[in-house]
Design goal:
Layout lengths: L1 E10 L2 E7 L10 E5 L6 H13 L15 E2 L2 E2 L13 E9 L5 E9 L14 E6 L5 E3 L2 H11 L4 H7 L1 E2 L6 H4 L2 H12 L2 H30 L7 H83 L4 H5 L1 H70 L1 H85 L2 H6 L20 H71 L5 H89 L7 H7 L1 H49 L16 H24 L11 H63 L5 H26 L3 E6 L2 E6 L5 E4 L5 H16 L10 E4 L8 H17 L4 E5 L3 H6 L2 E6 L7 E6 L6
Parallel strand pairs: 3-15, 3-16, 10-14, 14-15
Antiparallel strand pairs: 1-2, 1-6, 4-5, 6-7, 7-8, 8-9, 11-12, 12-13, 16-17
């Protein structure tokens, strides 16, 4: 992602500002400084960037801040706290080019309520993104913005703050934070959350496998079975089966006798019923026979009546059959007569309109001829004016003017270069004077160093001597002052001060002497420290002066190069343009060029006037050609109208003759089919009535003729039905003679023959079954046997059998359950063995990586990630300081100190300046760990340069200057009020504030002296 522009309105102390990163001084500046006094609003620039991109800022994104704490009616961690005091609206807008190559605009804004009791209260903040590649398509909801932000930036808010914006107060969080804090940061930067879930899944997998093994063990314990009780159950089953067999045999014997008695009674009852039903059906058969005889006579009478009607209308039979064709012919006659009348009317209308159409055709031909004459005159005029324009050679004049204008511009640039070289020479002289001052300052600093160094060495020697004297006295006292004094006499040499002993003192004298020696050492040590500090301060001043001298020399060399480059450029332009190299020569050439441009402008104006005249003639010709085409089209329309009218007259005359001929033919065709005398007069008098009468008469004749077939078919059916009924009656009397004697009255039923035949068959079947039943009589059946008593005995035996079967089923179920139990137990044991094998395979994996929180594998992966981070960080740290190197044990950081024999030290033992250097290297290493493959073309640092000494500050700036080359095209922005950075970094975004007034933001390039 590339940040192009930032616009700020009423954020913190900044009322209005716009920063363009792609134009002006920031365009080609890989390193720039955001500077200003404390409280002026430097950090506000970073706040505005994150507000626009993410809708929040590091200073107000900490959820640990108490939300219930209200400041100005808003929560303490509400980003609206950044709105400038007294403002009713605020906004931060960033224009970017996303990693997907599309231009976007991100905006955070807030306004105030304008009505009601809450007037002036800030509304909720609005956060929007615009996709300018889609015509400014705006996204206003978080759920829509985040997918766009992901494609454009590729970083979440926390990743952005760790890799792109190193915010104030968070710079050393990673260095000094605990393992949990580091794990959280690494997780957000490198997306190791997936490994955490993997570790949890492994832990859950092993726990589930262990639970499954334990559950299978419990299930096997429950599958005990019958054991020693099984033989007893099997003996009881055998006994119950014997009793059931005896009971079943006895039941079958009783059921056989009972069933025979029931069947015999059923057959006797069935025979009686069939004979009764047969008598009723036979009576219905006789009634049906009588009714059928009457229907037969009626059918014969109907056939005779239809035969008589058809015989009477036999002469008209052919006409009635062709009635439809006759009516069609007559309709053709009527249609032809109507069309003939219409054709005659059209013929009269066309003959009347033809003279007027011929007149219009003649007038249109005359108008076309006049248009052609006028167009020819205008075309000749156009050709004449076109030749005049070509003679002016307007195209050549324009080219000549362009060349003259370009030459004038080049001469103006040359003049600006001549003025610019004077400014460059003035800058060079000022820088040379500054170099002299700085060289004098360096000389003074270097001159003072030897005396201060000698003073420091002298003070150190005195301190060492005082320390040795103090330690000697201390040692003697500690060896035992009483013992030493006891062995001395007046006149001896004192072992401590080496003087002659005049008198022997007590131990208190030696204690006072010890205090005197310690005081002397303390004074010498204090003097030594003071001398060393003076030397260090002078050395630092000398280093700073030397750095200023180096910077001034580089600036002068840059000035010399700029002067040489500008001089070479001026000479090249003088040679190319062929003008004098002085300001006077340039002014003369410029005046001459202005004259040429003005003369060419006048000639071009005349040519353009001729162009306008020719264009007007061309427009007139275009209109005349259109008028000619319209006249031509009008003539064509009139000619077609005349031809169409003449053609219509011919067609109308032909239509009259054709319809007259068609009417005569259709009338002749109809006459050939009609046999009614004088029919034509009746038809001419009432055409519709006569045709309807003919159609009705022919329809009645066809209907009578068709009904004759149906009547004869009905007569045949009656004859067949009567014969069938008589045959059925004779058959019934033959098979059941008693029916002939019956005198019961019946009801006519056309299905009665079928019913009689069916009942005759049933009677024969029942009689046959009774004979067969007599042959099946059981041998043990006695006359005293009764079906009801036999059924009762069977029910008693079945009840006992059911009881025995239930008891048998219960015992069989116990055997089956025991068999299933044994089978299930064997299967469970095999399943348990397999589950244990799988669990044992997962155990070493779970021991290494699995737990309920996922931290075990996550910390393992993060330790490797941290080692990779340290590899990158140590690369930058080596550029800053040769003393330290970062190392880790798990997620615990430490430093290897080369100055102390490569001892490993905790990071919290580093001084403030050392912590900043190590934190900067670590932050740059973290910035290189964005695993999305996407990022921002800028690194912004808001932290700690004030803690660095001169040497470390120089090293840090050099690393930041080289960071652009080390990381590709990444720009680096530093926020600081340190004066040394102002001198080293050439491009500044200066934030200045005057009292209670809003801050002013301007972009300054120190090298070119412009803003």
């Amino acid at each position: 992602m590339r940040i192009r522009k930032l616009a700020i309105r009423n954020i913190a102390s900044i009322e209005s500002a716009e920063i363009d990163f792609e134009n002006g001084p920031l365009k080609d500046s890989p390193l720039f400084l955001i500077c200003g006094e404390t409280g002026s609003g430097k950090t506000t620039v970073l706040d505005a960037i994150t507000l626009a991109l993410y809708g929040k800022t590091p200073r107000y994104s900490d959820d640990r801040r108490k939300k219930e704490l209200q400041v100005g009616g808003m929560a303490f961690n509400d980003a609206r706290q950044l709105v400038r005091h007294g403002a009713t609206s605020a906004s931060a807008v960033v224009e970017i080019v996303g990693n997907d190559g599309k231009p976007y605009e991100a905006r955070w804004s807030v306004g105030a309520v304008t009505r009601g009791s809450k007037k002036g209260t800030l509304k909720d903040a609005e956060w929007t993104w615009k996709d300018r590649s889609k015509g400014g398509l705006e996204y206003t909801h978080d759920r829509d913005i985040w997918p766009v932000l992901k494609n454009a930036v590729g970083l979440e808010f926390e990743q952005f703050c760790r890799t792109t914006l190193l915010a104030q107060g968070q710079f050393t969080d990673f260095l000094l934070g605990g393992e949990d804090a580091k794990a959280e940061i690494l997780e957000k930067l490198t997306n190791t959350e997936k490994f955490k879930q993997f570790g949890i899944a492994i832990g859950e997998k092993y726990a589930n496998l262990s639970k499954a093994v334990a559950l299978l063990g419990e299930e096997i314990k429950l599958l005990a079975g019958l054991g020693m009780e099984r033989p007893v159950v099997e003996a009881k089953i055998k006994e119950l089966r014997g009793k059931l067999d005896d009971s079943d045999r006895l039941i079958k014997a009783h059921e056989a006798r009972r069933d025979w008695l029931l069947r015999d009674a059923e057959l006797a009852q069935g025979e009686q019923k069939v004979r009764a039903d047969l008598a009723v059906a036979f009576a219905d058969l006789r009634a049906t026979e009588a009714e059928t005889a009457a229907q037969l006579q009626a059918a014969r009478d109907a056939v005779d009546k239809i035969d008589a009607f058809l015989a009477a209308n036999e002469p008209k039979a052919i006409m009635y059959e062709q009635a439809a064709a006759i009516i069609t012919d007559l309709w053709h006659v009527r249609d032809a007569r109507e069309k003939k009348s219409a054709a005659e009317a059209s013929l009269a209308r066309f003959e009347k309109s033809l003279p007027a159409l011929n007149k219009e055709r003649v007038e249109a031909a005359a108008a076309l001829e006049a248009s052609v004459r006028i167009l020819d005159l205008e075309s000749a005029k156009e050709e004449s004016e076109k030749q005049k324009l070509e003679a002016m050679k307007l195209k050549d004049l324009r080219k000549a003017k362009e060349s003259a204008v370009k030459r004038r511009g080049d001469i103006q640039i040359l003049g600006a270069r001549l003025e610019g070289i004077d400014r460059l020479l003035g800058d060079k002289k000022a820088h040379e004077e500054a170099l002299k001052d700085r060289q004098d300052e360096l000389a003074k600093s270097l001159a003072a160093l030897p005396a201060l160094e000698d003073a420091a060495r002298t003070a150190a020697a005195k301190r060492d001597a005082a320390k040795a004297e103090r330690d000697r006295v201390k040692g003697l006292i500690e060896d035992g002052i009483e013992r030493i004094v006891a062995g001395l006499h007046v006149g001896d040499e004192c072992p401590i001060c080496r003087s002659r002993i005049e008198q022997l003192n007590s131990s208190s004298v030696f204690s006072a002497l010890m205090e005197e020696k310690s005081a002397a050492y303390a004074a010498a040590d204090k003097a030594c420290v003071k001398a060393e500090r003076a030397f260090d301060a002078a050395k630092a001043a000398a280093d700073g002066a030397e750095a200023k001298v180096s910077d001034a020399k580089r600036q002068i060399e840059a000035d010399r190069k700029a002067v040489r480059d500008s001089y070479d450029e001026i000479q090249a332009m003088v040679a190319t343009l062929g003008v004098g190299g002085s300001k006077e020569g340039v002014a003369a050439a410029l005046a001459e060029c202005e004259k040429v441009v003005a003369d060419l402008g006048d000639r071009i104006a005349a040519g353009e006037a001729q162009e306008d005249l020719l264009k007007e003639i061309t427009r007139s010709i275009k209109k005349l050609r259109k008028a000619k085409d319209e006249a031509k089209e009008s003539l064509s329309v009139r000619e077609r109208a005349c031809l169409n009218c003449e053609s219509s007259i011919k067609e109308a005359r032909s239509g009259v003759k054709a319809e007259e001929s068609r009417a005569e033919k259709s009338l002749a065709d109809a006459s050939a089919k009609i046999v009614i005398p004088a029919w034509r007069d009746a038809w001419e008098a009432d055409q519709d009535g006569w045709e309807a009468s003919l159609e009705e008469s022919s329809r009645d004749y066809r209907r009578r003729k068709e009904s004759l077939v149906e009547a004869r078919h009905g007569l045949s059916d009656c004859e067949k039905r009567a014969a069938k009924i008589a045959e059925c009656r004779n058959r019934a009397i033959e098979k059941a003679p008693a029916l002939a004697e019956g005198a019961a009255a019946g009801k006519a039923d056309e299905d009665s023959p079928v019913k009689v035949d069916t009942l005759l068959g049933q009677l024969a079947h029942v009689v046959q079954q009774r004979g067969e039943q007599d042959g099946k009589r059981p041998q043990d059946l006695s006359d005293e046997d009764n079906a009801e008593e036999l059924s009762a005995k069977c029910e008693e035996l079945k009840a006992e059998g059911d009881r025995l079967r239930n008891e048998l089923a219960a015992e069989l179920q116990r055997i089956a359950a025991d068999d299933r139990c044994a089978s299930d137990r064997a299967a469970k044991e095999r399943e348990l063995e397999a589950a244990r094998a799988v669990r044992d395979e997962w155990k070493p994996i779970a021991d290494l990586f699995g737990d309920q929180t996922g931290k075990k594998i996550q910390r393992e992966i993060q330790s490797y990630v941290l080692m990779n981070v340290l590899g990158k960080a140590n690369y930058y740290l080596k550029q800053l300081s040769d003393r330290y190197e970062l190392s880790c044990e798990g997620l615990v950081l430490s430093v290897v100190d080369a100055n102390e024999g490569y001892v490993v030290r905790p990071v919290n033992t580093l001084s403030g300046g050392e912590k900043f250097i190590v934190s900067l290297a670590l932050a740059l290493g973290l910035a290189g760990m964005n695993d999305t493959g996407l990022g921002v073309d800028m690194l912004l640092i808001d932290e700690g340069f004030g803690t660095l000494s001169g040497e470390h500050l120089n090293s840090a700036i050099e690393v930041l200057e080289r960071l652009n080359a080390l990381t590709g095209t990444r720009k680096v922005g530093v926020i600081s009020h340190v004066e040394r950075l102002r001198e080293r970094i050439r491009t500044h975004i200066e934030v200045t504030r005057n009292g209670h007034e809003p801050s002013n933001v301007r972009i300054v390039s120190v090298m070119h002296g412009r803003s």
